[in-house]
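User: Show me a protein chain along with its predicted structure.
Assistant: Here is one chain, sequence first, then structure tokens.
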Amino acid sequence: MSYISGARSVDNANKQVRIASTTIDGIGPKKAIQIRYRLGISGNIKIKELTKYQIDQIEQMIGQDHVVHWELKRGERADIERLINISCYRGIRHQDGSPLRGQRTHTNARTCRREKNRKGN
């Protein structure tokens, strides 16, 4: 089982490096291409064909330049907790599990209402 920067890349073993690296949270297509060019990795090489040294280089490059995976998730969680602590509108909506951005809730957002009712019972 291979991991790159804490993200599992087993499912992507047969994909090209630039495509498989976009599955890591925080890395999009442009960053994936930049990383590949900086390390001098061929465009057609697949994840399963990479050596251990190349995988270590990719991890090191991602760790230096980009906020990825668990760091990104931790930041998002901290932002939501901050909104809840200051009791702003968005924080309250997060607590309730309701839509945050002004979406209609009378006829839509059924899953939110269903979960809310289930918690109350």
